[in-house]
Structure formats: C-alpha cells, structure tokens
C-alpha cells in the first residue's frame, strides 16, 4: 500500500519541482542556481549529477543544503542513498534501474521521502504498490536531459491520476510554452530541468511557471 498522504504534507502541496542538473551548470554555479530556483518558487529541488564522483556530488549537496533549508525547500538527492543519508537530505529519488523503494527507505530512514521515476502507466501503478512517496511521470516529450528514453506523450496523464493517488510530477520537456497543453491533459504538478537552467533569467522563469500551476 502507499504511504498515508499525511506523512509528507510538503509533497502533497508541492506543484513545482526543479532539478539542479550538472549537465546544464558547472559545480561553481550550483549555489547561485540553487538560490535562483528557490527564490523563484520551486517547491522541491533535486540534485542530479550523472557524471560526477560520489565525493564531488556530496560536496555539492552540502553546499546546496543550507540554501534550500533557508528557503524551506526540501532537497532531494538523485540516485545516491548514501549521500542522502550522510547529509540528511529531506528526500531521495530512485529510477527504474536503481534500488527498490523499500531498500531506499531502509537506507535513508523513515522521515525521508522516496520518489521514483516512472515511464508508463504500468510503472506508475507499480511504484504506488511499492509505496513510493511520489512519482515522476515521463518523459512527456523528447528531451536532451534524458536522451535515450522514448517520449510517452500526454495521453496517459488523466488515467495515471485516476489510478495513482501519490503526488505525480509530470516531467520531460516541460517549458512555459508547453505548460498549457500539459495542464489541459490533466497534470497538476511538473518537473522542469533544462528550461529553468538555461533560462536567461532563472528566477523570473520559475516565477512564471509557478504562477501558471494550479
Ligand atoms: N526523467 C524523465 S525526463 C527527465 C528525467 C530526469 C529529464 C527532464 O528534463 P527536461 O530538461 O526538463 O526535459
Ligand atoms: Mg537513478
């Protein structure tokens, strides 16, 4: 069964999820990017660094955490349970090829939320059965941030919200231009990566997306 909704009220109220992805910024830019995303109004923030070493990622996480904490934004570590546990992040995120949700939860402890990436309706339903605290659902569109994945389109968004009671964050190619059609398709929560990190004015772009969400 899924965790009770009241376990993590901040996940329930969250609408906008940002990711500091080291594919789009340098380690030296991480603090400024974190501050801009938080000040713009992200509700959750993830650290995702596919090409850095564990010590490098941990160092970045430790630099981000005071900033996210000051803004009351939960920090979520992608992939690395041991870093989440060691820095005391508020969340951890696992993919289909990572640890199962139960193992992730055992590694980070009961007060830390565990999110899972899903790429189909079936995977979303399975993540709920696995008791994830939230899911990412996508990629909706083809995206350079996750280039090897086939986009799933918008057609299953309504159904996934009927079948899965967890907070569902639609992800993959989300930007301001596409947001209206994504919301019309039934999305309530989104993750934005490259559109934020590449925006000329990150804070303003975050604010713009945030103001369009329900
Ligand atoms: N998982 C599914 S799509 C994706 C991830 C991490 C990347 C989303 O990035 P962008 O740049 O917002 O398309
Ligand atoms: Mg992963």
Overview of the structural elements:
This protein is α/β, with parallel strands linked by helices and 214 residues long. It has a single domain, classed as Aldolase class I (TIM Barrel, Alpha-Beta Barrel), CATH 3.20.20. It contains ten helices and eight strands. It has helices at 9-13, 30-40, 54-70, 81-87, 101-108, 121-129, 157-163, 179-184, 194-197, 202-212; strands at residues 16-21, 44-48, 75-78, 91-94, 113-118, 134-137, 168-170, 189-192. Strands 1-2-3-4-5-6-7-8 form an eight-stranded parallel β-barrel, surrounded by six helices. β3, α4 and β4 (91-94) form a beta-alpha-beta unit. α2 (30-40) packs parallel to α3 and α2 runs parallel beside α10. The relative contact order is 0.16. The model is unreliable at 1-6 (pLDDT under 50). The chain binds 4-methyl-5-hydroxyethylthiazole phosphate (TZP) and magnesium ion. Magnesium ion binds at residues 78-79, 94-95, 98.
What structural keywords apply?
single chain, 214 residues, alpha/beta, TIM Barrel, eight-stranded parallel barrel, 8 strands, binds 4-methyl-5-hydroxyethylthiazole phosphate, binds magnesium ion
Tell me the β content. Answer: 15-25%
Shape: globular
Rounded to the nearest angstrom, the distance between the terminal CA atoms is 27 Å
Would you tell me the structural class of the helices and strands? alpha/beta
Strand order within the widest beta sheet: 1-2-3-4-5-6-7-8
What is the CATH T-level topology? Answer: TIM Barrel
Pathway: Cofactor biosynthesis; thiamine diphosphate biosynthesis; thiamine phosphate from 4-amino-2-methyl-5-diphosphomethylpyrimidine and 4-methyl-5-(2-phosphoethyl)-thiazole: step 1/1
Cofactor: Mg(2+)
GO molecular function: magnesium ion binding; thiamine-phosphate diphosphorylase activity
Keywords: Magnesium, Metal-binding, Thiamine biosynthesis, Transferase
């Amino acid at each position: 069964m899924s965790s009770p909704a009241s376990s993590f009220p901040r996940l329930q109220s969250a609408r906008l999820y940002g990711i500091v992805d080291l594919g789009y910024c340098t380690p030296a830019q991480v603090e400024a990017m974190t501050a801009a995303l938080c000040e713009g109004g992200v509700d959750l923030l993830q650290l995702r660094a596919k090409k850095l070493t564990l010590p490098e990622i941990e160092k970045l996480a430790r630099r981000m955490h005071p900033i996210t904490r000051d803004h009351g934004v939960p920090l979520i570590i992608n992939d690395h349970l041991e870093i989440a546990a060691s820095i005391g992040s508020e969340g951890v995120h696992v993919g289909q090829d990572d640890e199962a949700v139960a193992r992730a939860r055992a590694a980070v402890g009961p007060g830390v939320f565990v999110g899972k990436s899903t790429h189909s309706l079936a995977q979303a339903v399975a993540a709920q059965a696995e008791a994830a605290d939230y899911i990412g659902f996508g990629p909706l569109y083809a995206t350079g941030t996750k280039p090897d994945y086939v986009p799933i389109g918008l057609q299953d968004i309504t159904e996934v919200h009927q079948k899965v009671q967890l907070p569902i964050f639609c992800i993959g190619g989300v930007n301001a231009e596409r947001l209206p059609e994504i919301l019309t398709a039934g999305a309530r929560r989104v993750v934005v990566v490259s559109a934020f990190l590449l925006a000329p004015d990150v804070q303003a772009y975050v604010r713009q997306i945030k103001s369009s969400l329900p």
